[in-house]
């Protein structure tokens, strides 16, 4: 099996975060890889910082006008020279064992042409939050057609480069849920290799792209329509409740109380299951939007001792570092 990997990082005006992210990518152990950073017309010194780096593994592509995250990732895919392509957002971080573990997972799962790892949420200070466990490799497409079960946004996935190109890459008409859309197409095309370990630090913060909630709601409707036939053929119904809870929490992180209340009331109207919880969430969130910060911190209680120990083993040194791992 060919094992060279190209890592694609889209970025725009996040120089300091990008340098930290890039440091965790360049620290990958025991794998043959290169990195393509696609700079979306940054004006904060990102281009100069990347030019100053003395990194043979690094290629920088620059868009003089921003084209959107999907187009940026697609430009990286087209430039990829590796047999595999892996994605990471410019504010997330990786364990140094991530890519090696994914190659092993691809070997152990017959026919797997894409893989994912588990993730742990982190805040701006890299404090641990809740876990995001990966799905089992068996019949992952049934779960994907119902809801997004792939952890860590785009940052936990690695796939065969030829397969991603064959499938058309990320849909440039989508942004927030473009990764979910591609995961469905990958799931329809190939089994999934799974690494059930917390090898991605997935940053959750109000300024993240995922917090454009209205956009996420619109794109979910597009995906629901796009894969309706595939769901019907398998007797699967889309499960919007998980997305609605997610959208409600994002509204609260932004302090948008009335929008969060609308989402939670919509959940309450959907049926008896979870109605009480949704009504309580609507009432509490309306009165006190800051409750979401407490909920986010409480998610750490869901970390198993083994996951907490492994995540801390590689995140703590990054948290304690006084400067980014890569400097210009």
Text of the CATH class of the largest domain: Alpha Beta
- The proportion of strand residues reads 15-25%
Q: In total, how many domains does the architecture comprise?
A: 2
User: So what's the overall shape?
Assistant: globular
Sketch the major β-sheet.
9 strands, mixed
Mean pLDDT: 86
How many runs of DSSP E, i.e. beta strands?
9
Q: Runs with pLDDT <50, length 5+?
A: 278-283
Structural class: alpha/beta
Question: What is the H-and-E element order?
Answer: EHEHEHEEHEEHEHHEHHHHHHH
Examine the coordinates and then state which fold CATH places here, giving the name of the CATH topology of the largest domain. Spore Coat Polysaccharide Biosynthesis Protein SpsA, Chain A
Helix content: 40-55%
User: First CA to last CA: what distance?
Assistant: 36 Å
Rounded to the nearest angstrom, the radius of gyration is 19 Å
CATH superfamily of the largest domain: Spore Coat Polysaccharide Biosynthesis Protein SpsA, Chain A
CATH architecture of the largest domain: Alpha-Beta Complex
- The helix tally amounts to 14
């Amino acid at each position: 099996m060919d094992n060279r990997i190209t890592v694609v990082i889209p970025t725009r005006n996040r120089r300091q975060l990008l340098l930290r992210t890039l440091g965790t990518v360049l620290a990958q152990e025991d794998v043959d890889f290169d990195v393509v950073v696609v700079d979306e017309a940054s004006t904060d010194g990102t281009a100069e910082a990347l030019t100053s780096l003395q990194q043979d593994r690094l290629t920088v592509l620059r868009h003089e006008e921003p084209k959107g995250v999907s187009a940026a990732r697609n430009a990286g895919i087209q430039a990829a020279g590796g047999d595999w392509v892996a994605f990471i957002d410019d504010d997330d971080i990786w364990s140094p064992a991530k890519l090696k573990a994914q190659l092993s997972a691809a070997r152990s799962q017959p026919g797997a042409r894409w893989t994912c790892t588990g993730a742990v949420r982190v805040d701006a200070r890299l404090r641990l939050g809740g876990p995001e466990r990966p799905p089992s490799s068996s019949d992952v497409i049934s779960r994907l057609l119902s809801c997004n079960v792939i952890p860590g946004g785009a940052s936990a996935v690695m796939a065969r480069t030829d397969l991603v190109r064959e499938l058309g890459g990320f849909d440039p008409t989508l942004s927030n849920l473009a990764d979910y859309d591609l995961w469905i197409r990958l799931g329809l095309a190939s089994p999934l290799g799974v690494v059930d370990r917390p090898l991605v630090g997935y940053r959750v913060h109000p300024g993240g792209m995922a917090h454009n909630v209205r956009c996420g709601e619109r794109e979910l409707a597009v995906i629901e329509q796009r894969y309706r036939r595939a769901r019907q053929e398998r007797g699967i119904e889309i499960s919007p409740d998980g997305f609605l809870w997610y959208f409600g929490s994002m509204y609260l992180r932004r302090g948008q109380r009335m929008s969060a209340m609308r989402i939670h009331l919509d959940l309450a109207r959907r049926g008896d299951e979870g109605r009480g919880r949704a009504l309580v969430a609507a009432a509490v969130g309306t009165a006190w939007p800051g409750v979401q910060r407490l909920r986010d911190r409480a998610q750490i209680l869901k970390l198993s001792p083994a996951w907490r120990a492994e995540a801390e083993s590689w995140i703590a040194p990054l948290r304690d570092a006084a400067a980014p791992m890569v400097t210009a």
